[in-house]
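Working notes for the structural subgroup meeting. M.R. asked for a predicted model of this chain before we commit to crystallization trials. I am recording the input and output together here so anyone reviewing the notebook later can reproduce the run.

Input as submitted:
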Amino acid sequence: MYDDFARVVVMAKAKVVASLLTQDQDFQKLQAADAAAAAQRSGLDLEVVFAKNNSRLQIEQLYHFIHAVPSARPVAIVVQTVAGDGLPRVARDAAKAGIGWLLLNREGDSIEELRAEYPSLPIGIVTIDQLGIGRIQGAQFRALLPNGGNALYVQGPPDTSAASERLRGLHEVIANAGIELKILNAEWTEASSEKVVALWLSLSSSRDYPLKLAGAQNDAMALGARKAIATARPEWLQCPFTGCDGLPDGGQRLVRERQLAATVIVPPTAGAAINLVATHARDKSPISARVVLAPRAYPALS
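Returned structure, recorded in token form:
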């Protein structure tokens, strides 16, 4: 009987939790699928939870795992936080409970401190070159508006590092190009973008803004902007629209169908984070503090 019990313990899979933003956004669905594929390859047990773009709900979900009995706790949490600060207090509480913390597509000032304090845990950041995304979008804007002009730009939540760095990269490239930006903020979803663009179009000031291009920080928000414009200012549908994420059946398809003029292909980060957890579980060696994946333009800028 003791031998049977020992075999069960050895064969039990280590559990990882992936906490993502919302099921209403295609890139987040890709993140979930990427995490699932990596967990299956690595022999890890994965549970995915979505926060419905609600920071309070996400925190409640995370503490459910952190406060579980030790035998039911995950070995690590892979999380893309709704809050732009990366939830440093929750990260610390997870580490105190012996749970690793892999932050996706966010910057976290406390990560290095946590790594030093809890060197036996897998703690780090897996992200995209967000500044590079903005620079690619800036190059696309310049190619589509060689003579400059007015551009609408739908940004994600400005308190997130992804949104702010993408905007900074865009500004770097379009400087002195004669492109004037009208920036609106949405919640990474098509519905939120459609709502904020529709509200702006209802203002009298928008009538004095001859639009030449509409861009967004993801493809879903680009579609939302396009829907709002189709309703309120259909003549602006002749303008080029650009997005980001570039999923094969998302942004890339929209470019081929000419609903978008361009997008940016962004690789998912969740699978790479799961791979780091698996490597740590197998070798007990320190993981990289920061892994940065590269985006690319679609179609190619050349």
